[in-house]
């Protein structure tokens, strides 16, 4: 049976969207065996999709060869059970190359990361993402963050572009996002997808839900999938009491700890995966490892999070 289109499979997720970390061995090289185990555990825990080699997966630190091998491993481990979306980025030529590598590896779609370094105008950004979308048959989700920030008019043009199916926000400007959603709804009626892509997106998801954005990234799912699932289920059922309990007792303290170091949105997640028994290695430079004290605080937060789940039973 032919799988449903990616947009359909993502539109009403059965669980969190999983952004696995990339595993490295003691010598710093990619450890595909551990990576496969990490992806497999996430799918078995209830992930609705795997976003391979994206921000949490240190896309910036991977060679093209490593990227293709990881995407292919994710595709093989999911075995069609959930879609696999791969990152693609840098300048246009390299983004196209990564897109084609992802297609060759069997990915179901692309998360188009911001262009490298430059602060481009809207015309240049549109040209960049149109070329990425035209390079393969894979549907594309455009990621707004850092140096890729769009006007509502530009997102309308993205929504009109063949192959672009969604827009992920990592900026956090809710006024802008409300205007974007409204403009696209008015000018391009249909099923364009929106995602909350802020770090630890659960922390802001109640606000995003208020403007109609129900899809969100979950890096926390990498190391505490039961907590991420409980929060997701609370949102889906409208159980704000349970959502607030997890926000107050786990997510807010985690976000405050994450703010203690640059790059902790990735480094703390990898530390969490290691604390939970899977040695995925350290982050690659220019990211750095959390301090010993911060890792101890993270271990305490994990214990607190699971205690909250027991209290709610």
Task: Present the secondary structure layout.
Blueprint: H1 6-11, E1 17-18, H2 32-45, E2 49-52, H3 64-78, E3 84-88, H4 92-104, E4 109-112, H5 122-135, E5 140-144, H6 152-159, E6 164-169, H7 174-187, E7 193-196, H8 202-210, E8 215-218, H9 225-237, H10 240-258, H11 264-275, H12 292-311
Parallel strand pairs: 1-2, 1-8, 2-3, 3-4, 4-5, 5-6, 6-7, 7-8
Give an overview of the whole structure.
It is a single chain. With 313 residues, this protein is of the alpha/beta class. The chain has helices at 6-11, 32-45, 64-78, 92-104, 122-135, 152-159, 174-187, 202-210, 225-237, 240-258, 264-275, 292-311; strands at 17-18, 49-52, 84-88, 109-112, 140-144, 164-169, 193-196, 215-218. Strands 1-2-3-4-5-6-7-8 form an eight-stranded parallel barrel, surrounded by six helices. Strand 1 (17-18), helix 2 (32-45) and strand 2 form a beta-alpha-beta unit. The longest helix has 20 residues, at 292-311. The model has no long low-confidence stretch (mean pLDDT 96).
Identify the notable features of this structure and list them briefly.
single chain, 313 residues, alpha/beta, 8-stranded parallel β-barrel, 11% strand
Number of strands: 8
Give the helix proportion (percent range): 40-55%
Kindly state the mean pLDDT as a whole number?
96
Largest sheet: 8 strands, parallel, barrel
Principal-axis shape equals globular
Low-pLDDT windows of residues: none
Percent strand equals 5-15%
- How many helices? The count is 12
Provide the gyration radius in Å: 18 Å
Class per helix and strand makeup: alpha/beta
């Amino acid at each position: 049976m032919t799988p449903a289109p990616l947009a359909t499979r993502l539109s009403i997720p059965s669980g969190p969207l999983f952004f696995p970390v990339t595993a490295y061995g003691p010598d710093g090289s990619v450890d595909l065996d551990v990576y496969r185990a990490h992806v497999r555990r996430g799918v078995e825990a209830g992930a609705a999709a795997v976003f391979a080699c994206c921000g949490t997966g240190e896309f910036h630190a991977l060679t093209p060869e490593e990227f293709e091998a990881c995407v292919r491993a994710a595709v093989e481990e999911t075995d069609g059970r959930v879609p696999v979306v791969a990152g693609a980025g840098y300048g246009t030529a390299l983004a196209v190359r990564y897109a084609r590598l992802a297609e060759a590896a069997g990915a179901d779609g692309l998360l188009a990361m911001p262009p490298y370094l430059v602060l481009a105008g809207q015309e240049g950004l549109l040209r960049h993402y149109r070329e990425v979308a035209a390079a393969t048959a894979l549907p594309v989700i455009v990621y707004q963050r850092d140096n890729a920030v769009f006007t509502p008019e530009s997102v309308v043009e993205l929504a009109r572009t063949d192959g672009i199916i969604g827009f992920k926000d990592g900026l956090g400007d809710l006024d802008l996002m409300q205007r974007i959603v409204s403009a696209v709804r008015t000018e391009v009626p249909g099923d364009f997808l929106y995602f909350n892509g802020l770090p630890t997106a659960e922390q802001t998801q109640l606000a995003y839900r208020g403007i109609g954005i129900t899809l969100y990234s979950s890096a926390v799912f990498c190391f505490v999938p039961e907590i991420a699932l409980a929060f997701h289920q609370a949102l889906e059922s409208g159980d704000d009491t349970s959502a607030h309990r997890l926000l107050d007792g786990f997510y807010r303290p985690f976000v405050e700890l994450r703010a203690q170091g640059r790059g902790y949105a990735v480094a703390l997640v990898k530390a969490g995966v290691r604390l939970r028994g899977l040695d995925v290695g350290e982050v690659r430079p220019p990211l750095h490892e959390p301090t010993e004290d911060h890792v101890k605080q993270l271990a305490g937060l994990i214990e607190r999070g699971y205690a909250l789940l027991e209290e709610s039973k």
